[in-house]
């Protein structure tokens, strides 16, 4: 892993001039989107926070709320519930506390939510385990909200991607309350899959493929035990979600994306030939420009966005994905905006993988993504 240097970003005041300099100093989109690093100290660093980026929307940016979700009910492969413990055992919390200088809150245990999982949970509208997923995500929303309303950055470690119903709902509600309705969150969804199926368009019935449809209101149910607890205060606008890294999208999802004008960047956009190149840097500029510079951001990162070369231990791997460096860069760019308010890392499954070291490599990749999102720098 090689995070970007702070010196790569613009500083306050005019740049030094030189008669021999050939550097192009014209502002780019990234220059306009990424907060200026001023010579005076930012508002808050935490104990020894290495980030030099001033937070726009957090009153306590040095405080990090941790929600560890040991839940796998949104899909059918066991093991993803073991991811938070594996991330803890890898030393992630010590890295966040000692290397990045965060004050950690709520990080003592992995939540398994056994009290919320019914013994009998038949399908509803084709959804598998609907009562369990609904009840667990409601609890997660409450946990994330409790941190976010205090003005803390929130990190949720999953678990499968169905948990984003809860994480994003909790963030959305807290931001609306903290800013008296004047702000709504945007979501950057980094994933090989769109996860925007409705119960009716899903071929599998797995709810981890449906969270965005419930969060945007494209899928609804009046019964609280089937996600009826999601209210307007929990929802996000289709105009404030951006996908990055898509490469395995169901036919029904493609129709939903087109009909709703949802901004999405596939691997094709990232990999365009040089003469019409986007590349990950240009894609991030366009993604952030779409969101706007004055919008709180919730970053939801599915590790299967990475190519299986980098993250083999995940439930639905798809070849042809992001490199780890590209994934780290996405996280670094989002951090550099100063707009980040919440991060999810999901779908690490330590029990899956083609080789002995697969789980270790995937956990290590997940830790790298988290550290980059939370401000790790080389200098």
From TrEMBL:
Enzyme class, UniProt record, top EC level: hydrolase
Keywords assigned: Arginine metabolism, Hydrolase, Manganese, Metal-binding
Recorded metabolic or biological pathway in which this protein acts: Nitrogen metabolism; urea cycle; L-ornithine and urea from L-arginine: step 1/1
Domain of life: Eukaryota
Reactions performed catalytically: L-arginine + H2O = urea + L-ornithine
InterPro entries assigned: Arginase, Ureohydrolase, Ureohydrolase_dom_sf, Ureohydrolase_Mn_BS
Keyword Transferase: no
The protein's required cofactors: Mn(2+)
UniProt-annotated stretches for the region Disordered: 1-42
Cofactor note as given: Binds 2 manganese ions per subunit.
EC id: 3.5.3.1
CDD domains xrefs: Arginase
Listed Gene3D superfamilies: Ureohydrolase domain
Composition bias type Low complexity, residue spans: 10-22
PANTHER family hit by this protein: ARGINASE
Family: Belongs to the arginase family.
Protein name according to UniProt: Arginase
UniProt source species: Humicola insolens (Soft-rot fungus)
């Amino acid at each position: 892993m090689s995070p970007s240097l702070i010196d790569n970003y613009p500083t306050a005041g005019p740049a030094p001039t030189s008669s021999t300099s050939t550097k192009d100093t014209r502002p780019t989109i990234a220059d306009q989107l990424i907060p200026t690093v001023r010579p005076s100290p930012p508002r808050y660093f935490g104990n020894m926070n290495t980030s030099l980026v001033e937070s726009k929307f957090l009153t306590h940016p040095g405080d990090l709320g941790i929600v560890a979700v040991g839940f796998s009910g949104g899909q059918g492969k066991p093991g993803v519930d073991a991811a938070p413990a594996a991330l803890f055992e890898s030393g992630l919390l010590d890295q966040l506390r000692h290397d990045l200088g965060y004050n950690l809150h709520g990080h003592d245990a992995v939540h398994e939510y056994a009290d919320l999982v019914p013994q009998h949970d038949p399908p509803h509208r084709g959804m598998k385990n609907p009562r369990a997923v609904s009840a667990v995500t409601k609890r997660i929303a409450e946990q994330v909200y409790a941190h976010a309303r205090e003005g803390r950055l929130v990190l949720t470690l999953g678990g499968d991607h169905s948990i984003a119903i809860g994480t994003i709902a909790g963030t959305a509600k807290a931001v609306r309350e903290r800013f008296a309705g004047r702000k709504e969150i945007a979501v950057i969804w980094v994933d090989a899959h769109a996860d925007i199926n409705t119960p009716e368009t899903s071929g599998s019935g797995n709810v981890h493929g449906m969270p965005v449809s419930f969060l945007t209101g494209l899928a609804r149910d009046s019964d609280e035990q089937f996600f009826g607890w999601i209210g307007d205060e929990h929802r996000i606008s289709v105009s404030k979600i951006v996908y990055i890294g898509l490469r395995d999208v169901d036919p029904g999802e493609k129709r939903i994306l087109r009909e709703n004008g949802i901004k999405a960047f596939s691997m094709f956009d990232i990999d365009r030939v040089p003469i019409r190149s986007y590349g990950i840097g240009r894609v991030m500029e366009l993604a952030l420009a779409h969101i706007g510079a004055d919008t709180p951001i919730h970053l939801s990162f599915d590790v299967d966005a990475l190519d299986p070369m980098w993250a083999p231990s995940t439930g639905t791997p798809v070849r042809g994905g992001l490199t780890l460096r590209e994934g780290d860069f996405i996280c670094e760019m989002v951090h550099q905006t100063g707009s980040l308010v919440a991060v999810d890392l999901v779908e690490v499954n330590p029990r899956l993988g083609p080789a002995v070291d697969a789980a270790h490599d995937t956990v290590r990749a997940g830790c790298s993504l988290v550290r980059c999102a939370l401000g790790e720098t080389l200098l």
